[in-house]
C-alpha cells in the first residue's frame, strides 16, 4: 500500500502581524494567520467567504517572516497539515490544525514593513555597471 500525500498550498493575506518566539534551544518559531478569500454563489448572489489558516514556520524562514511580513501583506505558503490534540482549562479534549510551512514566498510590494522588494539594482550598483539596462517591476510581463 502506498503512503498518503500531505501537501498544502495556501495564498492569502496576513490577518495580524507575525508572532516570533524561540524554543529553549534557540530555534526560531513564527506563527502566521492567513486569510484566504473566495467568492461563493449562494442562490443568485455571490458572497465573500474568508477561511482562516494557521501557519507555523521554523528556523531562518521564521526569522525572515517576522522581519519582512506584516498584517495585510500577501504570502504564499507550501507545507503540510498537522493536527494536535490538547486538553483545555475545563478538561475538554480539543484539536488544533495548522500548516507547518516548508516554504514561504512574500508577495506584493508596498511601503513600510515587509514586501518591499525590487528587481532593479541599487543606484550604486547601476552606476558601476552601466552597460546593463535598469528595469523595474512595471516592465515585467507577469
Tag the structure with descriptive keywords:
globular; 142 residues; OB fold (Dihydrolipoamide Acetyltransferase, E2P); mainly beta; disordered C terminus
Show unreliable segments. Answer: 110-142
Q: Assess the beta-strand content as a share of residues.
A: over 45%
Which CATH C-level class of one domain is it?
Mainly Beta
Shape: globular
Average residue-wise pLDDT: 82
What value does the Rg take, in angstroms? 20 Å
Total helical segments: 2
Provide an overview of this structure.
The structure is a single chain. With about 140 residues, this protein is mainly beta. It is built from 2 helices and 6 strands. It has a domain at about 10-40 and about 45-110: Beta Barrel (OB fold (Dihydrolipoamide Acetyltransferase, E2P)). The protein has helices spanning about 60-70, 125-130; strands at about 10-15, 20, 30-40, 45-60, 75-85, 95-105. It has a 5-stranded mixed β-barrel with strand order 1-3-4-6-5. A hairpin with a 5-residue loop joins strand 2 and strand 3. Mean pLDDT is about 80; it is low at about 110-140.
Amino acid at each position: 500500500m502506498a503512503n498518503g500525500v500531505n501537501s498544502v498550498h495556501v495564498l492569502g493575506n496576513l490577518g495580524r502581524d507575525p508572532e516570533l518566539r524561540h524554543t529553549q534551544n534557540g530555534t526560531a518559531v513564527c506563527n502566521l494567520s492567513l486569510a484566504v478569500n473566495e467568492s461563493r454563489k449562494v442562490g443568485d448572489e455571490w458572497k465573500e467567504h474568508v477561511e482562516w489558516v494557521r501557519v507555523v514556520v521554523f528556523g531562518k524562514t521564521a526569522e525572515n517572516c517576522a522581519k519582512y511580513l506584516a498584517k495585510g501583506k500577501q504570502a504564499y505558503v507550501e507545507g503540510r497539515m498537522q493536527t494536535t490534540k490538547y486538553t483545555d482549562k475545563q478538561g475538554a479534549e480539543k484539536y488544533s490544525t495548522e500548516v507547518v510551512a516548508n516554504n514561504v514566498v512574500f508577495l506584493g510590494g508596498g511601503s513600510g514593513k515587509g514586501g518591499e522588494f525590487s528587481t532593479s539594482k541599487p543606484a550604486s550598483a547601476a552606476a558601476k555597471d552601466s552597460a546593463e539596462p535598469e528595469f523595474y517591476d512595471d516592465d515585467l510581463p507577469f
